[in-house]
Amino acid sequence: MKLFFLTLLTGAALFLAGCFSADNNYLEAQDFAEHLKQAGLPVASVRPIPADPFKANSAVAIMVGESEIGVYKYDRSSRHQKKRIEKLAKTKRTHIAGLPYPIVVHGSFMFFGLEKNKHKHAILKTIKNFQ
User: Fold this and answer.
1) What is the pLDDT of residues 55-110, one digit of tens each?
2) Within 10 Å of residue 1's Cβ, how many Cβ atoms?
């Protein structure tokens, strides 16, 4: 009986841990474009962009409708990258030339430029299940 409850408790803890953190480190930034297409969003183009300004590993600009969003991938297996993306997740903003800009962080990814996209709410919904 104790083993049953211990197994149940362990399973619940693992399930809840998965609910709070996205395990999407195996994906790449360009995979999000395909994820958007599968959700029915109008993806017009995908192009690589420099990841250096935000110290990410890779990045793409995705044209969704009439405006682009930036998708930046951080490698959570790297201690420095994990620390960087966790800090971004807490602050929910990044800075360009000293000016703050809102971002969305999900798992290993930072999403930039959503606030001006008319598909913002659909993109946010798609981000939540990107794993």
Assistant:
1) 999 999 999 999 999 999 999 999 999 999 999 999 999 998 999 999 999 999 99
2) 5
- Per the CB < 8 A criterion, the answer to whether 61 and 69 are in contact is yes
Question: Which distant-in-sequence residues (6+ apart) come within 8 Å of 24 by Cβ?
Answer: 106, 107, 108, 109, 130, 131
Enter the tokens of residue 62. Answer: 């995705």
DSSP string of the chain, one letter each residue: -HHHHHHHHHHHHHHHHHHHS---TTS-TTHHHHHHHHTT--EEEEEE---GGGT-SEEEEEEETTEEEEEEE--TTSHHHHHHHHHHHHH-EEEETTEEEEEEEETTEEEE-GGG-TTHHHHHHHHHT--
**pTM across the whole model:** 0.81
* Residues whose CB falls within 8 Å of the CB of residue 67, separated by 6 or more in sequence, listed in order: 113, 116, 117, 118
Residue 9 corresponds to which tokens in the numbers above? 């408790």
Q: Which residues contact 129 (CB under 8 A, 6 or more apart)?
A: none
User: Are 66 and 81 in contact, with CB atoms under 8 Å apart?
Assistant: no
